[in-house]
Amino acid sequence: MLSVGSSAPVFELPEASMEMIKLSSFRGKKNVVLYFYPKDGTPGCTMEAIGFSDHEADFNRHDTVVFGISRDDVLSHAEFRDKHGLTVQLLSDSESEVCRKYDVLEDRQVDGNIRCCFNRSTFIIDKKGVVRHVLCNTSPRDHADQVLQLVKGLN
Q1: I need a surface site. Which of 33, 72, 109, 148 has the fewest CB within 10 A?
Q2: For the domain that residue 87 is a member of, what is the CATH number?
Q3: Segments in 55-142 forming alpha helices (H)
């Protein structure tokens, strides 16, 4: 897992509208919240995405953009976004490259088999591209509120 004080690994991923998002384009301009979630449409992931969408204006006031990242494809993201009226940008990491860079996947034994499982995690990155906060095994309930409080402390 990335540690506080390390440089955030750069990446480029497609958003639900198929626009390519480069993390490096925010350096020097915006703080960035990356929250990694398991799957579009599940109750916890829906609660979390709605929470971040509801606080969009608050994050904007603190020069912060929020991206949700999962391994779902852009079509799934677009359907999820439209069904729930989400404003948070959802990025598709269908090849798990960014998930690996941020070390949010882990092998676990499930029913006698080794499975690649998702560790719901959030990274708060400052305008210089430095990881300032790492939240692991997060609960979707009130997660956006918790992250907003941490972002307020960045400035």
Answers
A1: 109
A2: 3.40.30.10
A3: 56-61, 74-84, 97-101
Length, in residues, of the chain: 155
Q: Per DSSP, what are the bridge partners of residue 114?
A: 109
Q: At what angle do helices 43-54 and 74-84 cross, to 10 degrees?
A: 70
pLDDT, one tens digit per residue, over 16-40 is 999 999 999 999 999 999 999 999 9
Q: Are residues 63 and 126 in contact, defined by beta-carbon separation less than 8 angstroms?
A: no
- pLDDT for residue 137: 86
- In this predicted structure, the answer to whether residue 110 has a pLDDT above a threshold of 80 is no
In a domain, 3, yes or no: no
Structure tokens at 84: 């729930």
Please give the model's pTM, rounded to 2 decimal places.
0.93
Nearest-angstrom CA–CA distance, 60 and 10: 22
Helix count and strand count (H, E) for the chain: 5, 9
Residue 41 inside a domain? The answer is yes
Domain, as residue range, for 39: 12-152
Answer whether residue 109 shows pLDDT above 70. no
Instruction: Look at residue 78 and tell me if it is in a domain.
Output: yes
Is position 132 within any domain? yes
Q: For this structure, is 116 an active site residue?
A: no
